[in-house]
């Protein structure tokens, strides 16, 4: 796929093929249901469908490569012939990246920022866009006691290292998307700081992704609201992220996010993103 525009923010719809994801775990575990759900997201305005077979919520246990492949590959294969928007594969495993791209995915969305053995080389060979996410620790324990000096500066330093690692193996900067990783080894205060200062990541002159949909930070701000009741909070967070420079928002609630973006765009011209 070509380079995505900086001007118009894109909506990435979340399609978790897992039994245990924090928000939609189990909803799309049947491939047929997943395909119908993805088609509905596209009709509602999703520009990208992000398919994942391993939950990365706090406390999540790792999933074997074969289980992950069995979950995502049939869905990607089917979707690649039935929807007309790019599919991204949410994985950290090189072999899953390879088979997913062969099945029809055109973006790698890696919460581990291509740090697994062979991931950089695999991403290079596949010649697709890659999203590098920052996290502190591993999903099983990352929320136990996250600590930073200046959270923005530390994330920026991490991005510099990962961009350099990509360029060293030959991955073009134009292929890279950055995601500061809301909720991945961050306290509520860290997450709010990232959202407030999101535009500081624009210094890299790369596309920026914000994924805070339905996350615990929204629930906490809303006095411990449960996951299904975080829609308005999530949409508000996505709009703030876009106004602060996000080019892509990764969301569960496509139609609501699209509606909000249309209102903001109508009143601000090209100022978004």
In DSSP terms, counting alpha (H) and pi (I) runs of 4 or more, how many helices?
A: 9
Beta-strand content estimate: 5-15%
Q: How many DSSP E strands?
A: 8
CATH architecture: Alpha-Beta Barrel
What is the typical, i.e. mean, pLDDT? Answer: 90
Q: State the name of the first-level CATH class.
A: Alpha Beta
CATH topology: TIM Barrel
Q: What overall geometry do the principal axes of the alpha carbons give?
A: globular
Structural class given helices, strands, pairing?
Answer: alpha/beta
Unreliable runs = 1-6, 21-26
In what order do the strands lie side by side in the largest sheet? 1-2-3-4-5-6-7-8
Number of domains as seen in the coordinates: 1
Structure description:
The chain is an alpha/beta fold. The protein has a single domain (10-268), classed as Dihydropteroate synthase-like (TIM Barrel), CATH 3.20.20. Helix content is 41%, strand content 14%. It contains nine helices and eight strands. The chain has helices at residues 31-44, 65-82, 94-103, 119-126, 151-169, 188-196, 216-221, 231-243, 254-268; strands at 10-16, 48-52, 87-90, 107-110, 129-133, 176-179, 207-210, 248-251. Strands 1-2-3-4-5-6-7-8 form an eight-stranded parallel beta barrel, surrounded by six helices. Strand 5 (129-133), helix 5 and strand 6 form a beta-alpha-beta unit. Helix 1 (31-44) packs across helix 2 (65-82), helix 3 runs parallel beside helix 4 (119-126) and helix 8 (231-243) packs parallel to helix 9 (254-268). The radius of gyration is 17 Å and the shape is globular. The two termini are 20 Å apart.
